[in-house]
Write a structure and sequence with these properties.
Shape: globular
Distance between the termini: 32 Å
InterPro entries: YmzB-like
Largest sheet: 7 strands, antiparallel
Strand order of the largest sheet: 6-5-2-1-10-9-8
Pfam families: YmzB (PF25846)
Structural class: mainly beta
Number of helices: 1
Radius of gyration: 13 Å
Helix content: 10-25%
Number of strands: 10
Length: about 110
């Protein structure tokens, strides 16, 4: 098993321990911070590709469930019933009972139950 696969297993195991909970995902990428609230139903591994802006990856961690992106003055529903984190190049993962932090070649993702 590669280090990347070990990281993916660690993330999936931690999320499964939380069960079907409401989670907050904070993405920090290129100086920008996005926040998404999601009612987590399950975790899948899949391919990610956004035809609108060609933003895609070979593999993604799919956090499946209904959610919304949080903005300063409003919220917007996710366009799909999942939040995808690109995982083909994971540099580091930190896990404890209250937080999962994933550092990839694209940015930093922090997942917490709320």
């Amino acid at each position: 098993m590669t280090e990347n696969q070990e990281y993916i297993q660690m993330i999936k195991q931690s999320l499964s321990k939380w069960g079907e909970e409401r989670i907050l995902v904070i993405k920090e990428e290129n100086g920008d911070t996005d926040q998404t609230m999601l009612n987590l139903e399950r975790v899948d591994i899949g391919a990610e590709f956004d035809p609108i802006d060609d933003y895609g990856s070979d593999q993604s961690l799919q956090l499946v469930g209904r959610g919304q992106t949080l903005f300063e003055n409003h919220q917007a529903a996710l366009p799909y019933q999942s939040y995808d984190i690109p995982i083909e190049n994971i540099y580091d993962v930190s896990v404890n009972q209250k937080r999962i932090t994933i550092q990839t070649d694209r940015g930093m993702y922090t997942i917490t139950p709320v």
